[in-house]
Amino acid sequence: MRKKIVIGNWKMNTTIEQAINLLVDIKENLDDVSTTIVCVPYTHIAVAQEIVDDRIAIGAQNVSQFEKGAYTGEIAANMLQSLGVEFAIVGHSERRNIFNESNEVVNQKLHHCFQNDILPILCLGESLAIRKNKQHLSFIKEQLTACLSNVNEEQIEDVIIAYEPIWAIGTGETASVEQAQEAHEFIRSEIANMFNATIANQMTILYGGSVKPTNAKALFQASDIDGALVGGASLNAADFVAIIKSI
Ligand code: PGA
């Protein structure tokens, strides 16, 4: 059985005080068996770690592609590791589009994660124009190949992939179960081609893009959808916990 999980991505939201309240709320509503990862802003990581118990892991939303040095404002993977952070999102479409991160940069970030025992949550997905041109599968393949360059079989086992079609992020428009399942099945088959079928079968592939309590269950019933990366709805404890419980 592969691991199913719901991960929250708070993006650039919440003050420390709001973050504390939100985490306490999530903790109180989560049942004993549910677990989750919440990716909070860098500034909140240490405080958040103090609040959570072993049902909630605190992750980062990004990591630098550089190891250390004169990179003002950047946060290195070994800094996250020294805080005890075990997960980091890499290659989110907002990083790619607003901060011009290329597949090559995403690949460098992945390798820094591996070198520092951080499990990367690799995001990929196509724009609306690419989907309208019916090029989404070849685009996903290109992203996978470039982002996973020089990743070996041992390292790939640590990667969680999040398929996030850009047109569904923060727009309220979710991919249909069929659209998401098609992309997930394709990603799994590409992982089998690049590595092997056992690795592909064990890989956790999350869907992201306007996941809500009302659509989570149907998405999670698809055979290749192993959970979700949740943005907006992870800022509301009741909604986020309802999504987690839909797994
Ligand atoms: P959304 O964001 O759930 O608000 O669409 C998802 C994401 O960006 O990871």
Descriptive overview:
The protein is an alpha/beta fold. The protein has twelve helices and eight strands. Helix 1 runs parallel beside helix 12, helix 7 (136-147) packs across helix 9 (177-194) and helix 11 (213-221) packs parallel to helix 12 (237-245). Helix content is 44%, strand content 14%. The chain has helices at residues 16-29, 45-51, 77-82, 93-98, 103-115, 128-132, 136-147, 153-156, 177-194, 197-202, 213-221, 237-245, and strands spanning 5-9, 36-39, 56-59, 87-90, 119-124, 160-163, 205-208, 227-230. It has an eight-stranded parallel sheet with strand order 3-2-1-8-7-6-5-4, covered by helices on one side. Helix 2 (45-51) links the parallel strand 2 (36-39) and strand 3 (56-59). Bound molecules: 2-phosphoglycolic acid.
Q: In terms of topology, how is this protein built?
A:
Layout: E1 5-9, H1 16-29, E2 36-39, H2 45-51, E3 56-59, H3 77-82, E4 87-90, H4 93-98, H5 103-115, E5 119-124, H6 128-132, H7 136-147, H8 153-156, E6 160-163, H9 177-194, H10 197-202, E7 205-208, H11 213-221, E8 227-230, H12 237-245
Parallel strand pairs: 1-2, 1-8, 2-3, 4-5, 5-6, 6-7, 7-8
Helix pairs in contact: 1-12, 7-9, 11-12
The structure holds 2-phosphoglycolic acid (PGA).
2-phosphoglycolic acid is lined by residues 9, 164, 169-170, 208-211, 229-233.
SSE topology string: EHEHEHEHHEHHHEHHEHEH
Q: DSSP helix count?
A: 12
- First-last Cα distance: 14 Å
The side-by-side strand order for the widest beta sheet comes to: 3-2-1-8-7-6-5-4
Q: How much strand? A: 5-15%
Radius of gyration: 17 Å
Present as ligands are:
2-phosphoglycolic acid
Number of strands: 8
Q: Which runs of at least 5 residues are low in confidence (pLDDT < 50)?
A: none
The protein's oligomeric status is single chain
Give the overall shape. globular
State mean pLDDT (0 to 100 scale): 97
The level of helicity is: 40-55%
Largest sheet: 8 strands, parallel
**Estimated structural class:** alpha/beta
